[in-house]
Amino acid sequence: MATRYADALAMVRTADEHEVVLSVGFFRRLWPSVRLLKAMVAGERLGRPIDFKAEWGGFYNWPSSTLGNMRKEWAGGGVLIDCASHLLDILHYVFDGLGEVLDYRDNARGGIEADAWLALRLSHKAREVDGLLEVARTRVLGTFVRIRCERGTLEFNVGDPYRIWVRSDEMELSDPKSGQVRGYSLQASWENEGEISWHGLVRRQIDDWLSAIRSGGQPELSGQSSLGTVQVIEDCYQRSDKLDEPWVDEGLTSAPVSDRKSTRLNSS
Asked: 224 φ, ψ to 5°?
């Protein structure tokens, strides 16, 4: 939405002042799977939520025509503002209230971060729910939002628009092959939810925006609903601590300036 909270807030206020519709492209929030995840948490089908974990990571391999994603003055940051913004939007949608940053660490080291780790506090029906969020451009992580509840676990995969995983702690079966008692998981989806193309899924955010224009109301993906995510990201950058990477720090010392000059002269 914006690289600074003040700019995002100004966008919302300007849209309200001029009575125009401001919509933000967090299209996954409209997916059937994310709506089902929210409904399962709200209905406490596995009990109240206890904690959560969210991950998204892989080697950065997008073909780029500019260095836009690698320059802080253009992108606002690195993997946190890029990938984590989508995870944070889903978490703010599923849970109540705004997120509170408990701890944040990355490896920006004066540039942009390729890896980031966040301890976040959300709430559910006025009860605090703490969790962790981890994103990376240098290593393979999961691509999920996992919510542990009193009687089981709910899991959304970032790439699945229709299904979530449901694992109940109270369900066990005897495996006929080994005779061992094992837990199991089920895939859950809405009944009679027809699948559409990827373009059709993305188009839903445009339809949401146009419907709000016609009705004079607010879209589901309103700018106002996205302020919490922008605020969390800004809070992270303001209180950033160094990510523990001993393979970077240990044994690496800078040579004195005189030695470096001597080395260059000798090599030439």
From this structure: -60, -40
Report the alpha-carbon angle 256-259-262, nearest 5. 155
Q: Which residues pair with 241 in a beta bridge?
A: 105
The angle that helices 32-43 and 85-94 make with each other, rounded to 10 degrees, is: 40
For every residue of 188-227, which 3-state class applies, written as one string?
A: ECCCCCCCCCHHHHHHHHHHHHHHHHHHCCCCCCECHHHH
CA distance 106 to 190: 38
pLDDT tens per residue across span 231-263 = 999 999 999 999 988 888 776 666 565 554 444
C-alpha 14/C-alpha 128 separation (Å) is 33
Distances, alpha carbon 190 to alpha carbons 9, 39, 42, 65, 238, in Å = 35, 11, 16, 40, 41
DSSP 8-state secondary structure symbol assigned to residue 228: H
Q: Which two tokens stand for residue 156?
A: 């959304």
Note the helical H segments in 26-176: 32-43, 72-75, 79, 85-94
What lies within 8 Å, CB to CB, of 50 at 6+ separation is 129, 148, 149, 150
Distance between CA 103 and CA 107 in Å, rounded?
14
**In sequence order, which residues have a C-beta less than 8 Å from that of residue 61 and are 6 or more positions away?**
none
Note if the pTM is more than 0.70. yes
The answer to whether 54 and 256 have CB atoms below 8 angstroms apart is no
List CB contacts of 196: < 8 A, sequence separation 6 or more: none
The answer to whether the beta carbons of residues 245 and 112 sit under 8 Å apart is: no
Could you tell me which residues are beta bridge partners of residue 222?
A: 23
